[in-house]
Amino acid sequence: MKFSAGFHRYFYGLQAILLGLLGYSAYLINDFYRLTHEIALLENNRFDMVALANELQQSSDQLTLFAQNYVVTGNPEYLRAFEQVLAIRNGTAPRPQDYHATYWNLNEDERAARHSQQDGIALLDIMATMPYSEAEFALLHLAKDQSDKLAIIEKQAFALAPTDKEQAKALLFGEAYKEAKHSIMAPIDQFLIVVNKRLAKNLQNLHEREQSLANSLPLILGLNALLIFTIFITINWRFIQYHRELVDLSMKDHLTRICNRKYLSEFGPQFLQYHRRHGNKVCLALMDIDHFKTINDNYGHQIGDRILQHFCKTVGSRIRKTDTFVRYGGEEFVLLMPNMTAEQCAPFLEELCARVAEHDFDERRKRISYTVSIGWVDSGHHYDLDTMLHRADAAMYKAKQSGRNCAQQGDCSNPKPTLAISKSA
């Protein structure tokens, strides 16, 4: 069984389109998840970048708080806290885990219990690992430098505090100190504005691309589903055709391309019972090509096969569309003719005999004449296939005995068949 070239092209075309769509879908899905990952990473980076900027501000505020408290109270705990904040920021002291603004509001026992110590690393070194732009990092570096300069002023106040507390307080509470403090906070504030604006724009672009992909994915996946369904329907339709063709092959004679004996055995009884129920007469003719063995012996089996095909073509051109023409075996053929009476059948079959005799087989400038003997019966009151075949066979024997090339009617009035009669070709 061969599929047509057109079907192959159509099916392979569908497969190619499906593979293309599946590949494109995989690309879109991968791109969608990549964008989702980028968005999550950008959100995390924004949080970390802002948190580090806040830590810089936090350290500056804590240094100011501890410096002012030490100058006012003279409590050495504030001086130690000041030096520890500065050391943590510069990376010369261990860095507490989860180092937040609340850290210095806890007592030492709570700090030790909740915030384990990690290796010391300078705040600027941590910032250098983050994806800041050069301008953003420059703002943070500037704020850090200004905070270091302010720490120098604060240390000067510490030196004055034991001997001249008022002068020390003037250093930490005067307008110059406020201006220095402003020089720290201004770059941090500018940084927060710039980085939030940049990252917000990047996030918006990523979200727009993500939304665009999210909108296109259902369409692409829907096309995939439609194409898979189309391929499934195509395959199913083709296999239905394939099954029909296989059934057709099993019911057709491969040489003459007319129905075969299996078809007659399976559908003949149904055919007869259908017409019996509807009160239609049916005539059955059994045909046998005369002296066919002699033709095979004289001309070869290939010519014999060609004559069988020629005979089927000759008969097929004369019968009706409602008639059923069957190769019964070898050179024997059966013709079922519904809605035909005995009065109509007799002249039709005689004319068919004459037509076969007139249409010689012409092969390579050799004209081969052949004839056919026909035995036939009408259904009468009996629509039994085996009975009709047996009676038609007996009638065909009579036609052979009568000189061949004629049609003889058999008697189908007796439902019980007689013994089979052997006949010569």
From TrEMBL:
Q: What is its EC number?
A: 2.7.7.65
Q: Which organism is it from?
A: Pseudoteredinibacter isoporae
Catalytic activities: 2 GTP = 3',3'-c-di-GMP + 2 diphosphate
Region (Disordered) spans which residues? 405-425
Segments spanning the bilayer are 12-29, 219-240
- Record domain GGDEF: where: 280-412
Instruction: Name the InterPro entries on file.
Output: Diguanylate_Cyclase, GGDEF_dom, Nucleotide_cyclase, Rev_trsase/Diguanyl_cyclase
Cell wall biogenesis/degradation among keywords: no
Q: Which PANTHER family match?
A: DIGUANYLATE CYCLASE DGCM-RELATED, REGULATORY COMPONENTS OF SENSORY TRANSDUCTION SYSTEM
Q: Which UniProt keywords apply?
A: Membrane, Transmembrane, Transmembrane helix
Reported cofactor(s): Mg(2+)
Protein's recorded name: diguanylate cyclase
